[in-house]
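Below is how a single chain appears once it has passed through the pipeline. First comes the sequence as given, then the structure the pipeline wrote out for it. We keep one example in the README because the format questions we get most often are answered faster by looking than by reading.
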Amino acid sequence: MKLEMASIESVEAREILDSRGNPTIEVEVILVDGTLGVASVPSGASTGKYEAVELRDGDKSSYGGLGVLKAVEHVNSEIASAVIGMSALEQAAIDQSLIDLDGTANKARLGANAILGASLAVAKAGANFRDIPLYRYLGGAGANLLPVPMLNILNGGKHAPGSTDFQEFMIMPVGAANFKKAMQISSEVYHSLRKVLEDKGLSTNVGDEGGFAPQLSSSKDALELILAAIDIAGYKAGQDLFIALDPAASTFYHDGEYVLSRESVTLNSTEMIDYYANLVSDYPVLSIEDGLAEDDWAGWLLLTVQLGKQIQLVGDDLYATNLERLEKGITQKASNSILIKPNQIGTLSQTLAVIKRAQQAGWTAIISHRSGETEDTTIADLAVASNAGFIKAGAPCRSERLAKYNRLLKIEEKLGDAAQYPGKRALYNL
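Resulting structure:
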């Protein structure tokens, strides 16, 4: 296999639609020997202000201004010119060339969606050139850890307006023997939850990520419904499954206070922390993501002091998969875990660097989808490649979510006896 055959011969992007029917970008990279790499980029609804810029056209006459033809053109012109002739096997060099080409701190000129599409397509072309799976290409021989899935089975917040103040209520099947069993348990609980909702006359419509979206008056109501579903499915909460929350607190943080409108409650940081402490005391909650707002650093420090030894405290908007913000969090001991979304930062190399740094600090890293997804399964391979231990890909519902879980089922099967499922051991930070 001559390495010069791994040189990039062409790069082409197009506008496609994501799971919400909004435009996003797909990129194809073809190497000299004809090897193909294809990647598409997701989009978030609940986006933090520190994320890299997702370039949209702003032309109200097309998709309400959400078109990505400018990003497509940037790939087909500047980005293609920069990387054609480079080796697809030199991921770090290509990603750095894209960062330099953009020239801004937040990828605002070319668009993080354009840059990430090219970065991921190059990685896939490289893996295909080597004729090995993407997880093995990125992670080497030691990539054999299947992640614990964190499945968003009840949606609220921006994912399902009118449901709950909190954005996500997830189950974590840490008691499963392997990933396949974890998905079986989770699917059974999900379908039991549908029955619980039907029996109570509540809506079984689903939100953006496939979770049910009933109208509830409090977060405790949501937790009680999930506990009932776990019981009906024949499992034990606090043993087979635990609960994870993503309040997405930045979305209900106003003028220094947390406004839980459905509960008619307004809380300061200390009171919000006490609210979570009570939930952790009363329910088998093992993880809270974005429990406080992205600029409430003082609150995060108090939250970690109070709950950081008991549960996983995950920064999403707080860090935005950004190494500089992560370093601040590590120094200040602001949390003990980070959510990883490649489109928050814009290149694969930067994403991998953030995961590695978090793990070096003794933190967990959770590889995550976005609410606007595609059928692309890169994050499934990324979770295994990085030995992250956790993945968020939504409910066991909707094909753009299940594509990730089904990919992991195939990876586990391919790994055979080498496959490891960590269960509760994934929470090595507690």
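The longest strand covers residues 8-17.

See the next section for the split statistics.
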